Amino acid sequence: MKEINSKISGFYKLSIEERQKLLTELYDLKKEEQELLKNLGYFTSTQLDTIIENVIGSYNLPIGIACNFKINNKDYLIPMVIEEPSVIAAASNSAKFARKHGGFFSDKVKSVMISQIQITQVKDLKSAKEQLISHKKEILERANEQDPVLNKLGGGAFDIEIREISTRKGKMLIVHLLVDVLDAMGANVVNTMAEAVSPYIEKFSKGIIYLRIVSNLAIHRTVKSRATFDKELLGGEEVVEGIMNAYEFALADPYRATTHNKGIMNGIISLTIATGNDTRAIEAGAHAYAALSGQYKPLTKFEIDSNGNLVGEIEIPLALGIIGGMTKIHPMARLALKILNVKNAEELCQVAAAVGLAQNVAALRALASEGIQKGHMALHSKNIAKLAGVPDDLIDEVAKKLVDANKVRVDYAKEILENILKKT
Ligand code: NAD
Q: Which residues are catalytic?
């Protein structure tokens, strides 16, 4: 392949079709590769060009449904977009274990976001704080003028918090503008408000303002969800004990806690993508919350009830919306929200927390019982059997033998097939 010069002047000014043509020439693309680029799925080129910059095409991923979820006494089919096998099956399974005991119970949560305003070079911190507090009403009014729609619906800025932090550039005052963003994720809403109130804050504090931006540590939007997972359906006392051991491991060890939380995010991020929400905001908030105590911790906790069942609880900040951002622009996100049938952002957050908990229990169960690799291997072994040329009616038999022997390899699949054929 010829060497590429990545400095392409005016690339951003080209149309999608022109960018595709340029790539075709640069990379000498084959007919089928050009067709891949041209297939924009359910988008028009104009739509795609307004979503991000320098668009060259559209990227597809599978969307599936997790079944068996009952959350706050309502049944849900959960749309999930993910590239990893086993995740949706695992969530559905785990939801079944909880369903026997009434499903998931998620607490109420307000859609409150924090916008941070950074004030530097404040000469008199005490007086600045007093001034800001005494002009709070004015600051909030100015913030709320920015979003009459939100205000009319009952949301908007309702309070400020003032924090003093020590930095290498001296002390700073950080104002948190608290905004009820109702059904939105809220980043744009609160950023606009913070920008609008900054001149006032600068005037009252007599400092210099630099950053005015949402905090993705959406601590006021922390959702709790809990469920009882049936001991027998999980696989018995030993599996429950294994899960408790896995939990203690995660509590004590950040290396394990990271993977523990990754399992939770498998579920939550799949739903986040499906509903057109911002995955980075959710990930950043979750991991910051996990580390808030000073040590990175699991986002779930577990205990065993008097009947030996596993009781799990998740606690996670979730800034998810059903309005704004991509939620209403992306056709599949709109459909996913229709399937999910949630009436507001609060309900979406309650569902997402439950999905995270279910996903976590499924992963811990797999690890604590058969070992997650074996679960993956069961699926993988069928593909290997196919690759080895095993006829359809023998795939299951060969795949099982591959897993049992712990030798999921094409050469061994061929050997098994030969032996079966010799016997018949
Ligand atoms: P938005 O600005 O697209 O829409 C929100 C607006 O919808 C509100 O201002 C309100 O006027 C209107 N609205 C109508 N009905 C409403 C209701 N029932 N509840 C709430 N609002 C209602 O969306 P947003 O949620 O403010 O911003 C989300 C986008 O911001 C995402 O795409 C995200 O990726 C992006 N973003 C994120 C960050 C970050 O996370 N750090 C920073 C900047 C931008």
A: 84, 262, 278, 376
